[in-house]
Amino acid sequence: MHDRERLQIAIVGSGPSGFYAAEALLGSALQIQIDMFERLPTPFGLVRSGVAPDHQKLKQPIRVFEEIARSPHFNFVGNIAVGSQITVKELQSAYHAIIFACGASNDRRMNIPGEDLKGSHTATEFVGWYNGHPDYRDRTFDLSQEVAVIIGQGNVAADICRILMRPVDELKSSDIAGHALEALAESKVREVHIIGRRGPVQAKFTTKELRELASLAGTISTIEPAYLELSETCNAELANKRSTVAQKNLEVFHCLTANVPDGSRRRIHFRFQASPVALLGEDRVERIRLVHNRLNGEPFNQCAIATERREDLSCGLVFRSIGYKGVAIPDLPFDPIRGVVPNMAGRVHADGVVLPGLFVTGWLKRGPSGIIGSNRADSLETVDVMLEDLSTTVPARAPGLEGVLPIIKRRSGRIVSLSDWFGVDAAEVQRGRKLGKPREKFTRIGEMLSIMSHQDEQGQPIGLSSTDTID
Ligand code: NAP
């Protein structure tokens, strides 16, 4: 069958949800051609630029994604921003269906005075910086400060805390960006307060991540015993069989109450039932003002209510890690409160009216929750409804990539193909080998694009021109 006779599907975004959608499509009985559009020249989304460098095992899905990408019916179309360099309408005119798998690349705001003072940062910035994401590689963090505060108690907060506190020797053999390793080697951060607005039962850490954080070499973690005196409602929540993670977390927290901070070690303080109300300082963050909270509501629905009690905590760095939000794409419905594309099981709708041919998956569909593997089931659901829709109509032929290539060639400096990426990948691995790292990432788009036109050690082109592969 000629490629043009296949169902032409565009996937926007090359993170886990995009790849799991591609896997489901390629595994279906239908003849499908997939073109995966990605804003960056590099694929794999948060697996490349979100997963912490000291968690290399979590990057293993990349091997699966590479296999998917090697399918003869799959094109990687990198360095193309959907919404600006090509519009949703233009894609619609060339494809039978589009799956948006763009994740949630914005942070929720705290909406408090001083939030944008120097020294106050988002999780996205810091995570992107240490992972070498081109958008964040030039951010600077004043690591000469001794005290940092992290707002939020999820696994991203745990990642940030670990990277701040882990002995730099333990990061040297990871794929952490070189600029971050250098800066962290000079870090003077000695103390981190990791603050939750609710109690220890409601903390979102998974137990493995919490244990790891609480047992970092050269660091002592503490918790005030009073935080573990639970209310009746919290005890009821904890006793429920849905609360196995919270039960195990509580065991970890209890072990930390006996710890006494000493001057020789770095310190992590877990603090609860406090919310920031202002960041204070002349030119930069000097203090964070917290309001103490009480919890109110039924088990599993308790929310934090501010009390009269306030406290100022001196600190020179603040990281807000209170969850991510999706970003609106022009011509696609968007729910700005939840930061997702409104959908029914993956079918995009506007005010309840389904928009044929438009689908969504991953964090942009359900919000920023779950682990990498959670996206597999999510993408399967989206692909199932999509195939159901397409099976009820006999689609006319669609040109697919051929139809949009003239547009994207005009609007992109360089379209990046899969083999272009494999060239960059090989060069990163080669650079890393010399440093005892799995890879030394290129962190500037210009560097990546120039590598694509170079040759490998054998004198073979390591990056084919875009037209060699995707025409
Ligand atoms: P998360 O797990 O939802 O945690 C967000 C934290 O921010 C919660 O403690 C939440 O408290 C708090 N928060 C939200 N709004 C707040 C506000 N206005 N003021 C104060 N605190 C507020 O989100 P995440 O840490 O960004 O992680 C996103 C997803 O990625 C999660 O599913 C996570 O497990 C996953 N992830 C996994 C790994 C791993 O497996 N190693 C690593 C990183 C991320 P409330 O509970 O009170 O809302």
Write the layout of secondary structure elements.
Layout: E1 7-12, H1 16-26, E2 32-38, H2 45-49, H3 61-69, E3 74-78, H4 88-94, E4 97-100, E5 106-107, E6 120-122, H5 123-130, E7 147-151, H6 155-165, H7 178-185, E8 191-195, H8 207-214, E9 219-223, H9 232-239, H10 244-256, E10 266-271, E11 274-280, E12 287-296, E13 303-314, E14 317-320, E15 324-325, E16 343-344, E17 347-350, E18 353-360, H11 363-366, H12 374-391, H13 401-411, H14 418-435, H15 445-452, H16 466-470
Parallel strand pairs: 1-2, 1-4, 2-3, 4-18, 6-14, 7-8, 7-14, 8-10, 9-10
Antiparallel strand pairs: 5-15, 11-12, 12-13, 16-17, 17-18
Any descriptors?
18 strands; Rossmann fold; 7-stranded mixed sheet; single chain; disordered C terminus; 471 residues; 2 domains; alpha/beta; 16 helices; FAD/NAD(P)-binding domain; 6-stranded parallel sheet; binds NADP nicotinamide-adenine-dinucleotide phosphate
